[in-house]
């Protein structure tokens, strides 16, 4: 004799419970595999990378701007020194030896100024390039963050829709569970955990809907002979077998 017995109506409810549990499993899988999830992850990564690149580019631009200011200050210092020497030279107050020194220094300062101005031009070009890179990275970051905001909203909407279906299915499940005998429910839950989420299956045209195997003649005869309240198990997949009007027995 089977260890568990249950009224045919309760066994039918077990199929309804299995249908709800299968739906809940499907909903859980759907929530884990929403297409927006992978897109959201990719956009999060992309936006983070762009933010990091932008910080580095902004820092580099700031460093170059500081370098430019220093180079321009060096040029101004040389110009000031040269201007002072020219005024002293033009004043006529310097002696012959000092005049010679001033002329020599002015020639040296002119070369120095030319070299420093070349440095300024080089730094200015690099500042311009860095500024363009910062602007482009800012544009890309803004686009990525806009896309991330859009996908986040779409993902939240999809998750909310799934969660709504889950909440409804769970409420229906609670109503069904309350109507089932404790021993039948315990057996079902144990088998469902052991056999891939399927604890009970209907017999349809002499086939187990759990494992999709056709029942052999000895199994059919055993089921025919079983009492209506006998809780049957399939020898092959060990799931609970539930007789229905479409069992073909």
From TrEMBL:
<dbReference type="Pfam" id="PF02591">
    <property type="entry name" value="Zn_ribbon_9"/>
</dbReference>
<keyword id="KW-0175">Coiled coil</keyword>
<dbReference type="InterPro" id="IPR052376">
    <property type="entry name" value="Oxidative_Scav/Glycosyltrans"/>
</dbReference>
<dbReference type="InterPro" id="IPR003743">
    <property type="entry name" value="Zf-RING_7"/>
</dbReference>
<protein>
    <recommendedName>
        <fullName>C4-type zinc ribbon domain-containing protein</fullName>
    </recommendedName>
</protein>
<dbReference type="Pfam" id="PF24481">
    <property type="entry name" value="CT398_CC"/>
</dbReference>
<feature type="domain" description="CT398-like coiled coil hairpin">
    <location>
        <begin position="17"/>
        <end position="196"/>
    </location>
</feature>
<dbReference type="InterPro" id="IPR056003">
    <property type="entry name" value="CT398_CC_hairpin"/>
</dbReference>
<feature type="domain" description="C4-type zinc ribbon">
    <location>
        <begin position="207"/>
        <end position="241"/>
    </location>
</feature>
<feature type="coiled-coil region">
    <location>
        <begin position="99"/>
        <end position="147"/>
    </location>
</feature>
């Amino acid at each position: 004799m089977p260890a568990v017995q249950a009224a045919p109506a309760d066994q039918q409810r077990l199929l309804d419970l299995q249908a709800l549990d299968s739906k809940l499993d499907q909903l859980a899988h759907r929530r884990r595999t929403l297409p927006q999830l992978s897109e959201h992850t990719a956009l999060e990564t992309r936006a983070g990378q762009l933010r990091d690149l932008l910080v580095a580019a902004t820092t580099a631009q700031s460093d170059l701007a500081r370098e430019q200011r220093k180079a321009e200050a060096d040029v101004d210092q040389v110009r000031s020194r040269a201007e002072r020497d020219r005024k002293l030279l033009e004043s006529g107050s310097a002696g012959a030896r000092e005049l010679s020194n001033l002329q020599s220094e002015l020639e040296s300062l002119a070369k120095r100024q030319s070299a420093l101005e070349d440095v300024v031009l080089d730094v200015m070009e690099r500042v311009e390039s860095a500024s363009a890179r910062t602007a482009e990275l800012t544009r890309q970051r803004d686009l990525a963050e806009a896309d991330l905001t859009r996908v986040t909203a779409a993902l939240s909407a999809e998750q909310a829709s799934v969660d709504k279906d889950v909440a409804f299915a769970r409420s229906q499940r609670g109503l069904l569970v309350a109507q089932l005998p404790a021993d039948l429910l315990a057996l079902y839950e144990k088998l469902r955990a052991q056999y891939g989420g399927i604890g009970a299956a209907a017999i349809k045209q002499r086939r187990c809907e759990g494992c999709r195997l056709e029942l052999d003649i000895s199994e059919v005869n055993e089921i025919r002979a079983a009492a209506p309240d006998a809780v049957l198990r399939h020898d092959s997949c060990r799931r609970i077998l539930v007789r229905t009007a479409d069992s073909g027995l």
